[in-house]
Amino acid sequence: MKKIYVNKTDPVALIIEKVIKSPDKEVVLYVPRGSMLASSRNNFKLLKREAGSANKILSIESVDDDILELADSFDVKAVNPFFGKKKSVIDIIVKDKEPQVVEEPRLEVVKMPLKKSAILEMRKEESELWAGGPAVTEGVSKPSTVRRLIKLFAIVGLATILGWLAIYVLPRAEIELVLEKINWDFTGSVVVSSSREMISFTDDAIELPGVIFTEKRNLTKPYPASGSEHVEREATGVITVYNEYSSSPQVLIQNTRFATPDGKIYRIDEKVTVPGAKIVDGKIVSSSIEVPVSADKAGEEYNIGPTSKFRIPGFQGSPKYEAFYGVSTNLMTGGFVGEVKVSTEDDIAKAKEDLNSSLKSALRTQIFLGIPTDIRVLDKADESYITKEEVNKETDSNGNFTVTAFGEMKAMGFKEADLFAALANKVASESNKDLVLYSHSLQGSTEGYGEPSLDFKNGKMTFSLNFKSSWVRPFDSEGFKTQAAGKSKSEITSLVYSIPGFKSGGVSLWPIWVRYAPESTEKISVDLDYTL
Fold it and tell me: How far is it, in rounded angstroms, from Cα 129 to Cα 430?
């Protein structure tokens, strides 16, 4: 069974929430005298309905007769914890002005013959009444001493338990405090600078340290080509040229031919020098170099697989013909003759627009993932740039061309804690009091702030600030409970009046006979509020 203590000022919605959230099915509400709950019958009606909906068995304890009567009128079990039941109330209703005569009931005596045994029994009962106890007759013994001791111990034990409850369990202390609240507003501008190290505050401007975040990346995406044309493309690939001829290097000019065993000709794309072979123990150890080649003719027939020997037709008839050769370990690809998809200028323009948007979005995601949680970056406090674009107009087998974009993004932020610290210093200096922020509101188009003006070249950002706030003196409720524990009502009252910024309040000890607050701070409640 869960017992919930209700404060005087608790609204019915809060009390219902406590009942519903209770882990126990049976819930007992202790309602103090003068609680807001008794201000309306609808409160009890709503409380009973919601408790029933939450499948809670609700009962009420209170020393307030009004609360007990209201609860009883809605069939909610209500008891006074001291009397063990609801205090009875007698309503006197006067219907007529003139007194009415009410006949007293008459006692009619009926004469009946009594047997001797009945007469003896009546005399025995009469004797017991006048003697203060049962008559002692022969053969009947008095109650034993053991029984009397048991009754005595039971009475003492019950008294001890009741005394323990009255001293250690029931006592509670309720302290109501209303402290001073100060309203303070500021309208001006905020200047954030990456070169500033300290906070400063003038009459209409706040200057804060700032930080600039920079991110760079590139993005490549394929796009479908809508045009078409007849093309003739040569297959391309790479061969490794070996020198087993001599230790002297061999120069091969651009377009030097290499022939496959079945006669297909491929030419090197640029001039190369094949390193000289090494002589180890009188034997030639070949040297090699990788060379890009293109097929001599267009067509898919030149898209060949790995080939073990390419000969150089220009060396045919000389010893170099066998000593210089090429080997390919990968495919020759790209040979084609026919109609292919090609990108148009409109295709390229639309592709660039889409890619730039995707790149900026990727940059934004990447840069904001790296911003620390204590840094505030306002909306629109960033700029992105496309620094370079590359278009590969050649389409793949699916008819797609590719576009690559390179971009950079910068964002500027500040510590919002620095801003509130500057405002706190300002209001404290003006009021000459140690204050903390109680509530505030920001009025602006960008998350409550004005739209930022950026100057990344000089590392600055400026935005307007319309700040409305309330400030209060710091108050340690738990520390105050510790001070109040075990003290009398007058001592607690003295503590209350010594609180800086105290406006009004009161101290209540419960039950009525309690003279000192409980030693346990868990049984002391502080209801804190603020006013101007």
Answer: 86
374 and 398 share one domain? yes
Distance CA 12, CA 35 (A): 10
* DSSP state for residue 37 in the 8-state scheme: G
For residues 240 and 291, state if they share a domain: yes
Which segment of 27-31, 90-94, 495-499 scores lowest on mean pLDDT?
90-94
Rounded to two decimals, the pTM is 0.50
Asked whether the beta carbons of 180 and 503 are under 8 A apart, the reply is yes
**Which of 335, 317, 320, 329 is closest to 252 using CA atoms?**
320
Q: Is the dihedral of CA 439, 506, 41, 64 positive or negative?
A: positive
Please indicate, yes or no, if residue 394 is contained in any of the structural domains. yes
Same domain (yes/no): 271, 132: no
448 located within any domain: yes
Q: What is the pLDDT of residues 94-109, one digit of tens each?
A: 334 444 433 434 433 3
Residue range(s) defining the domain that contains residue 380: 214-225+341-409
Instruction: Note the pLDDT of residue 111.
Output: 39
**Do 242 and 314 share a structural domain?**
yes
Strand-pair partners of 183:
470
Give me the pLDDT at residue 134, please.
45
